[in-house]
């Protein structure tokens, strides 16, 4: 089992952190193009609140995608809802 097995219950907490980081760095979460670009390219290290928030946002988005993929895989394998 994954270390992240209990995270599906906490999607809303991750989503709030994603929204907070996006707000700090001025990122538009509604832009599919911007999301794809952020996920496709490493964020340069910028020692500013906006730079740190953008790096955090990228990491949180990857975590969210990983959790969604795990949930889909578990559902496909008949494990959805098991602890």
Structural description of this entry:
By secondary structure, the protein is mainly alpha-helical. The chain has one domain (7-76). Helix content is 63%, strand content 0%. It has three helices and no strands. The chain has helices at 11-25, 32-40, 49-76. The longest helix has 28 residues, at 49-76. The termini are close together.
Note the topology.
Blueprint: H1 11-25, H2 32-40, H3 49-76
Summarize the structure.
By secondary structure, the protein is an all-alpha fold.
Distance between the termini: 9 Å
Number of domain modules = 1
User: How does the major sheet shape up?
Assistant: none
User: How much beta, percentage-wise?
Assistant: under 5%
What's the gyration radius in Å?
A: 14 Å
Percent range of helical residues: 55-70%
| SS elements, strand count | 0
The general outline is elongated
Order of helices and strands: HHH
SS summary, helix count: 3
The whole-number mean of residue pLDDT values reads 85
The secondary structure category is mainly alpha
Unreliable residue runs: none
The oligomerization state is: single chain
């Amino acid at each position: 089992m994954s270390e992240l097995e209990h995270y599906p219950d906490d999607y809303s907490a991750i989503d709030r952190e994603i929204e907070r980081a996006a707000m700090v760095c001025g990122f538009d979460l509604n832009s599919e193009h911007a999301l794809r670009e952020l996920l496709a390219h490493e964020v340069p290290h910028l020692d500013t609140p906006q730079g740190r928030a953008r790096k955090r946002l990228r990491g949180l988005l990857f975590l969210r995608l990983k959790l969604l993929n795990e949930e889909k895989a578990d559902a496909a394998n008949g494990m959805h809802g098991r602890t």
